[in-house]
Amino acid sequence: MTLDLSRTSQHNARVLTTAQALGGASPAIIVSLGGLVGQQLASNPALATLPVSIFNLGLAIGTLPAAWVMRRHGRRLGYLFGAGLGMIAGLVAAFGIYQQLFVIFCLGTMIAGFYASYVQSYRFAVADGAPEDIKPRLISWVMVGGLFAAVIGPQTVIWTRDIVPWAPFAGSFVAQAILAALAIPVIWRLKSATSTRASASKTSNAANHTGRTLKEIARQPRFILAVTAGVVSYALMSFVMTAAPIAMVGCGHTVGEAALGIQWHVLAMFAPSFFTGRLIQRFGVKTITALGLIILAASGAVALAGLGLEHFWIALVLLGVGWNLGFIGATTMVTTCHRPEEKNRVQAMNDFLVFGSVAISSFASGKLLSVAGWELINWLIFPCVAVVLLMMLWEKRHQAMLTGV
Question: Which Pfam families match (predicted)?
Answer without folding.
Answer: MFS_1
